Amino acid sequence: MTEQPETRPQRRDMEEKFPRALWVRLIVYIAVGHLFAGFIYLLFEVGAK
Known about the structure:
Helix content is 80%, strand content 0%. The chain has helices at 7-16, 20-48. The mean pLDDT is 84. The chain crosses the membrane at residues 21-44. This is Small hydrophobic protein. Keywords: Membrane, Transmembrane, Transmembrane helix.
């Protein structure tokens, strides 16, 4: 039952940090979601007049 010292820290680092692609996707989804919500809000404001 010997552990390999080189693979263990790499695995722990991957579990603790999110991949860069996930952060980019998260920011894009948040930005697009806010733009969509703003567009819907604009539609309701214009429609109420």
